[in-house]
Amino acid sequence: MKSGKFWAWVVFALGAAYFFIPLIATVEFSMRMRRGAYSFDAYQIVLGDPRFQATFGYSVLAAVFTIILGVLIVVPAAYWIRLRLPHLRPIVEFITLLPLVIPAIVIVFGYIRMYGSNSPLPFLATDMGTNALLVIGYAMLALPYMYRAVDTGLRTIDVRTLTEAAQILGAGWGTIIGRVILPNVLIAVLSGAFLTFAIVIGEFTMASLLNRPAFGPYLQNVGANRAYEPAALAIIAFAITWGCMSLIQILSRFAPRSANRPN
Amino acid sequence: MTDLSLSDHAVAGKTAPPSEARALRLPTQWLGVAPFFIFAIMFLILPTLYLMLGAFQNDAGEFTFENIAALAQPSIVAAYWISLKVSLSSALIGAFAGLAIAIAIVRGGLPEWIRSATLTFSGVASNFAGVPLAFAFLATLGRLGLATVLLNTVFGLNIYAHGFNILSFWGLTLTYVYFQIPLMVVIITPAIDGLKKEWGEAAATLGATQAQYWRMVVIPVIWPSFLGTVILLFANAFGAIATAYALTGSSLNIVPILLYAQIRGDVLHNAHLGYAIAFGMIVITGLANVFYIWFRTRSERWLK
């Protein structure tokens, strides 16, 4: 057992080295901009760049709309399947896994060919349409995570009793979903939302192929043309991912627990 | 199922107008899931089918195998080959390293905080992919990266003189491993948690050595989830483009980068060849996931 513990430490140390050296190297590199001294110049330049502010703002907005769209699609479906159509569960779960099977670049390629300017549904003919298509594509990318999160949340509450109680009190379907079910799974929905945010904020493929002024293509562009700023941007992106994941962890402490909670 | 239909019959026999009630109920039954299905069909299934059908059509819209046959040209075969190599090697390295880390934190007798810290960090690192990850590795193992410079000044080892290049197969593999290991840790840790203490005790009672316990109990139980996760990691790497594109530009021609160039500028001078490349990608990730689902159903038997 003693040698087991020794090897466990060795494995852990090697893993920690592999994961921390790139982070340390990136921090170090990002501060090397001024000759001979460490400075935050690269961060100042990046944060002061109007294109950074514009693209970051665009991506935050896209993420917010993606989350709204995802919730509108996933919550009623997951609720309804739990309540009334449990036999559809395998089909829906299969569909929610598909975005993990079909690469994002293939999905967006399909969009470009199907929804071009001279198709019956010309999303790509206008700027607003293209923005909408980007949000739709992002909602697709986030679908597996959003569905899983909401379904896990629904598992911890008694959907049927809540619904019947609300119906007895005279609530319609909109009221039931919006004012009874949603507040009860709010923490699960928020977890899905933050994960969506982390996925969407720096997404490159879809934004680039749809020619949207998003953060991902901006990152790529800076990477191709500058030396120290990309490292600063990588640290900023890591901090954002870290922030999203920490919020999910904090939220999970407030989540209701029940005996049949899967994890 | 039979029970349900029986009770339906019983109801139909007793109450007067059941058909009317049914006709009214059916649409509302579907109303809640309708947005989901419409969305999935319009923006996931139809676009994919469109590409898959397009792969078997020529410009005049006639059925043909020409596009699929054209995939055999050397540049495309080379792209598929390097993509498969990078995805498979990063999946295998990530899987074994991730498994070792998961075993170390679950069974290694390390302090509890290491376990929770590792799992939290894995959650972050598995989502830290794309363009920023490429920047981090350029800052580490690029020509002026910290690790490159330190290896050269401290150990006198110039890795670039020894043929290493971040813009190469190994550079890309090493970078992909950064999100593959954490993904493995996140997925496989519950499987290792699922190894019941009683099994170890039962094996010991029956006189098994530690090696026999691992060989005859642990490995057979973990094997399906391990293989399943390897396949998931493979598919995960196969479809990824942002990291590779930011890291290597188009100097390393993996399939997603080839498809990206084709979508942007028809570099292959044949629109339907793009469909065929996409079709090939769907076939590969689709097959991978069929195996994944198969392994997962096998592993779930043990991990209740």
TrEMBL record, chain B:
Keyword Membrane attributed: yes
Its chief place of residence is membrane
The membrane-spanning stretches of this chain are: 30-53, 88-106, 118-138, 144-161, 173-192, 212-235, 242-261, 273-295
The compartments listed are:
Cell membrane
Q: Does the keyword Transmembrane helix apply?
A: yes
A Pfam family this protein belongs to?
A: BPD_transp_1
PROSITE patterns given in the database record: ABC_TM1
> Which residue numbers delimit the ABC transmembrane type-1 domain?
80-294
Q: Which keywords has UniProt assigned to this entry?
A: Cell membrane, Membrane, Transmembrane, Transmembrane helix, Transport
Task: List the CDD domains hit by this protein, alphabetically.
Answer: TM_PBP2
Its placement in the membrane is given as:
Multi-pass membrane protein
Protein family = Belongs to the binding-protein-dependent transport system permease family. CysTW subfamily.
This chain's protein is named ABC transporter permease subunit
